[in-house]
Amino acid sequence: MGCGCNDPINSWYDWAHQMPADILDLVAMARLGGTVGTFLNSTSFNTPPVAWTAAGIGYSGEPLVAALATDSGLAINNSDQFNFGHELRNQSALLAPPLQKVIFARAGTQWENLITLAFGGVTYNDLQLSFRDNAGTRGDAQGTIPVISWAGAFTGNQQLGLVFKQKTQVSLMIRAITSAGDWSAFEMEVKVI
User: What is the value of pTM for the model shown?
Assistant: First the structure.
């Protein structure tokens, strides 16, 4: 979906007919609250049986980059230096609202990007992560969309760990269902450097 320079999408009709992009082309690993996500072809990423509600999910604190080679002092030192030299999220209360969804992350399968999400006092028991633009499609030939999925009871602050394969700028979406059956979506605009 890239820059849109040669994008054949000229209306919602065209968008609906696009093939969904595979989240595994970008994400090498994803975990939430210590639980590794499961890849699946979702039939429910973009099709709620009820109206969408306002997203109750937000960022909490500064994202961090951690070295996956925890036995390597050099790798740990490199990630510490990266965190010291980069502001990955602007937490100013004066930041324009459209920019509050923007974070930076580090590319490479040797780094895990740790992003703390605030779920508040609501319990989410069904979460799916994929590209935001996939929600505008009808899915593949089977009507499914590739996602990374978590089932459980997620509430309070939870750490989302993402390992990105390459540099890019992308909009990701977490589709969330609460234990009460409310559906919402949280958008993350990630500049992977």
Answer: 0.93
